[in-house]
Amino acid sequence: MAYHPRIESPTLPALLTTRSRNSELWLINNRPLEEAILGYVGKFSKRYNAKIYAFAIEGNHTHCPALFPCLNRSSFMRDLNSCIARSVKRLVPEYPGGRFWGRRYSSEFLPGNEDLEEYFFYTVLQPIKDGLVERLADYPGYNCFRDAIWGIERSFKVVDWARYNSMKRYNKAARLDDYIELVTLRFERLPGYESLSQAQYAKLMQQKLEQRRQKILLERRRNGLGFLGRQRLLGLKRGCAPVSTKTSSYHTHRPRILSVDHSRRALYRAWYFTILRHYRLASKAFRDGNRAADFPPGTFLPSARSQYPPPLKRIGRPKLKPR
């Protein structure tokens, strides 16, 4: 199935996922790269007023359940993924160059509080679900769970490369330190727990995580699956191919709605396809020349370049026949 049109909502969170080219493991065993990525998440979440509930940096992909009240998810992901790709090229000496991301990011709506909670734990439990470690404490990379449940804010230094490179063109003495800003990364509390104190919320989330962790361990043991372990993770070579990974093609089915409740999923699927149907009608009218076509909220105007008249052919000097 082809990529579906981007529909944005100010009230529905979404699970955002981006995977590296060929699923190669470039996002491992690199603390400077990890801190650069987290700094950009903090920077752009503030710039776009995004509510970030969790963020996972896996070996070849990132996960992020988030809400965008200002209908600017596309701008956030454009800037974030662009900066991550440039950081990989700058901070990973082994990287051979070329496009970093395999395809554009995927986005699936999470319509209910239970759905957001389900994929919050899906995100933070990735190292265990993928068979890397048995406990989050053994995972050598960053995991946001403790920061998210305790409301911990972390500060990161982020270089404004655009300003620095622009100034460097005219002032060779420009110092990189003058273009470093301090940004803060904080995670939003899951909705539905506003009445709990921070300690009560953290204790409840720890209990829920342990219950889910035990289920994952039981399932893997039942299937005869083990765990890679911390030491073997630390010994992985950056850029290697994973033993197993999720794969998809242009025609792979991509869900529009993720929900633990079948009736809620059906309800929001109907909402989604109603928006999509109205968008297609408005898009056709727009492309046919109606610049006042009424587009549904959360959608983007299509390209109108096909409506421009073809460029005039340049008429050169006529060739003279020799006498």
Describe the protein:
The chain is globular, with a radius of gyration of 24 Å. It has nine helices and seven strands. The mean pLDDT is 90. The longest helix has 26 residues, at 262-287. It is an alpha+beta fold and 323 residues long. It folds into two domains: 14-247, Alpha-Beta Plaits (2-Layer Sandwich); 261-297. A hairpin with a 3-residue loop joins strand 3 (56-57) and strand 4 (61-67). It has helices spanning 31-47, 73-91, 113-124, 126-129, 145-150, 161-170, 198-222, 230-234, 262-287, and strands spanning 14-19, 51-52, 56-57, 61-67, 106-109, 154-159, 180-185. Helix 1 (31-47) packs antiparallel against helix 2. Strands 1, 2, 3, 4 and 5 form a five-stranded antiparallel beta sheet that branches. The protein has a two-stranded antiparallel sheet with strand order 6-7. It starts with 13 loop residues before the first strand and ends in a 36-residue tail after the last helix.
Write a concise synopsis of the structure shown.
With 323 residues, the chain is of the alpha+beta class. Helix content is 38%, strand content 10%.
- Helical proportion? 25-40%
Report the average pLDDT across residues. 90
Number of helical regions: 9
Q: What is the count of structural domains? A: 2
From the coordinates shown, what is the CATH architecture of the largest domain? 2-Layer Sandwich
Shape: globular
Would you tell me which CATH topology of the largest domain applies?
A: Alpha-Beta Plaits
Portion of residues in beta strands equals 5-15%
- Spell out the CATH superfamily of the largest domain: Transposase IS200-like
Number of strands: 7
CATH class categorisation of the largest domain: Alpha Beta
Cα(first) to Cα(last) distance is 64 Å
Give the topology string: H per helix, E per strand: EHEEEHEHHHEHEHHH
Main sheet attributes: strand count, strand direction, barrel closure: 5 strands, antiparallel
Give me the Rg, rounded.
24 Å
Structural class by sheet pairing and helices: alpha+beta
Low-confidence residue ranges: none
